[in-house]
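Side project, low priority. Logging it here so it doesn't get lost.
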Amino acid sequence: MSLLDALEQDNIKKNTPLAERMRARNLNEFFGQEHLLAPGKLLRRAVEADRLTSSIFWGPPGCGKTTLAHVIAAQTRSAFVRLNAVTSGVADVRKVL
C-alpha cells in the first residue's frame, strides 16, 4: 500500500457518515430485536448455522433492517442482494428471483 492509498483510505474513513461507522458488524454488536436474535432464538440459530433462507425485513425507518441484513450477509455464505422498496419495483424483484 502506498502513502497515497493510505491517505485515501483515511479520508474515506473520516468522511463516512457516523451511522455507517457505528453500524453493528456482528450479532453480538446488534442491539434490539431480542425476541428474534437473543441466544437460542430461531433467527440467531439460523444465522449462526448458516441455514437462513430468503428473507424480507419490514419495519419503520431506523429499526435496524439494513444493519441486520449487513450482519447476516457478513456472517453467512449466502448470496446477498439488497433491494430497497422505495427505489426498487416489481421488475427488480423478478430480476433477482
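Brief comment: The chain has a mean pLDDT of 85.
Revisit when time allows.
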